[in-house]
Amino acid sequence: MSIKNICCIGAGYVGGPTMSVIALKCPDIKVTVVDLNEKRIAAWNDEDVSNLPIYEPGLAEVVQEARGRNLFFSTEVDKAIDEAELIFISVNTPTKTYGVGKGMAADLKYIELCARQIARVATTDKIVVEKSTLPVRTAEALQNILHNTGKGVRFDILSNPEFLAEGTAVQDLLNADRVLIGGENTLGGQKATEALANIYSNWIPEERILRTSVWSSELSKLTANAFLAQRVSSINAMSELCEVTGADVQEVARAIGTDSRIGPKFLKASVGFGGSCFQKDILNLVYIAKSYGLNEVADYWEQVIIMNDHQKRRFAEKIVKTLFNTVSGKKITLLGWAFKKDTNDTRESAAIYVADYLLSEQAEIVIYDPKVSQEQILADLDYLNTRSEAENRALVTVVNNPMEACDNAHAIAIMTEWDEFVNYDWKQIYNQMQKPAFIFDGRAIFVPSEMENIGFEMYTIGLAYSKNI
Ligand SMILES: NC(=O)C1=CN([C@@H]2O[C@H](COP(=O)(O)OP(=O)(O)OC[C@H]3O[C@@H](n4cnc5c(N)ncnc54)[C@H](O)[C@@H]3O)[C@@H](O)[C@H]2O)C=CC1
Ligand SMILES: O=C(O)[C@H]1O[C@H](OP(=O)(O)OP(=O)(O)OC[C@H]2O[C@@H](n3ccc(=O)[nH]c3=O)[C@H](O)[C@@H]2O)[C@H](O)[C@@H](O)[C@@H]1O
């Protein structure tokens, strides 16, 4: 079966880049990405590709090449569903904020709405692909909705989770470690699996296209994120131990990472992991385990989140303690707001929580991030509901110029590892700061001795440097 028409519901951080790369690599397939959010679709259609709603290195070039040829962005959801043979569901699955499972379970209302819309609109057979990250056995619920339309339309449901990381999405999609397809072990299920595999085989080597059951595929996605986040929490736990014992977490990471069983990646101590998925997906995993009565399994994974919350808090506490136990009225500059470099995404960014803590201590916060707008930063702080919007605006200043951000500051905290931060004129910044001039390097981007030679008082995460403050 050769697919000629694809639709993707959800033009977000996954739907947009994923479909752009499919369209790039499969010029004979028409790919339509639809979303209810008109502003987002207008931005995807903006003639100037520097205005796309998502910043990802290399994405603008891909969109430029495929858009209007076989890649389309639209708000006409019904039409795109009706025309497509294969439909990706790539909508958001946030943590529930109400009712049963509040604060833990994944909110599947957007997924269900998509299923109901597909059921209502479809007049021809469809392959429906779960691209969103979903609790194991969600396909069962989709099946129930889709198979009871009474219209005689055949639906095959596949799970095809996405493993891209933001900031490297295009490269991750072009050179995926693997593509995972979960399908039913029936003739129909196998045919659907091969139809999707055929699309990927346009650029992904056959041995990297893994086929599993639907349940294994759904659970593998949650498991992958849990393992990745666990590595970050593990190295962050060691970072605290390093600081009190005189060890250096970067040396420890290098030493253990050379063991081929451990591997060198994802061992960078930080101010805590952020992003829209790690926390959400682990909470979801914990909730699923609890709902089956597996309390030890749930507690085991919950510790990854507890450690991460601790890491964010202890970084903020370190700032207050070092600044002579008070930051009230002091100017503290945060460099970076995105949850990692090379993205404009701020969801669950550690910077939000550190800023919130410092604001509660009455600090004056000045923020600079190369890709995040003032509007977004203030919205992130307002969303926490810790204080009034007016108070946030009175204490927070967002600037477009890093030198201005650091001017007259008592301390600078590195929240995101943007490459440009290392190359600033740090001598000049030092001269413009209050003394002693403190730097809290939450990403270990500096060589501490170089900064100390300029005159800075340095704190580097995970480092018991001789003069570490
Ligand atoms: N952000 C990431 O790096 C990754 C995310 N994922 C998963 O992919 C899914 C999507 O994540 P993101 O793209 O980050 O979310 P997002 O929030 O950026 O995008 C989701 C889009 O779906 C749209 N939408 C919601 N309901 C809709 C409906 N009924 N009809 C049409 N459009 C609708 C929203 O307007 C929004 O634009 C989530 O399940 C997430 O866990 C998986 C891998 C990576
Ligand atoms: O499901 C998802 O949403 C995605 O979640 C992560 O991708 P992402 O969150 O975009 O970015 P990561 O590179 O994983 O970083 C997550 C957070 O961990 C932090 N991190 C990462 C690695 C590390 O060594 N140390 C560290 O602190 C990053 O700074 C960032 O805040 C996974 O890496 C992707 O495979 C997955 O598809």
Automatic annotation (TrEMBL):
Residues involved in substrate binding: 162-166, 221-225, 261, 268-274, 339-340, 443
GO MF, any single term: NAD binding
Catalytic site positions: 277 (nucleophile)
Keyword Transmembrane belongs to the record: no
InterPro entries xrefs: 6-PGluconate_DH-like_C_sf (IPR008927), NAD(P)-bd_dom_sf (IPR036291), UDP-Glc/GDP-Man (IPR017476), UDP-Glc/GDP-Man_DH_C (IPR014027), UDP-Glc/GDP-Man_DH_C_sf (IPR036220), UDP-Glc/GDP-Man_DH_dimer (IPR014026), UDP-Glc/GDP-Man_DH_N (IPR001732), UDPglc_DH_euk (IPR028356)
Binding site for NAD(+): 10-15, 35, 40, 91-95, 132-133, 166, 277-280, 347
Catalysed reactions, as listed in the record: UDP-alpha-D-glucose + 2 NAD(+) + H2O = UDP-alpha-D-glucuronate + 2 NADH + 3 H(+)
Pathway annotation: Nucleotide-sugar biosynthesis; UDP-alpha-D-glucuronate biosynthesis; UDP-alpha-D-glucuronate from UDP-alpha-D-glucose: step 1/1
NAD keyword on record: yes
Gene Ontology biological process: glycosaminoglycan biosynthetic process; UDP-glucuronate biosynthetic process
Protein name in the entry: UDP-glucose 6-dehydrogenase
Species this protein is from: Dokdonia donghaensis DSW-1
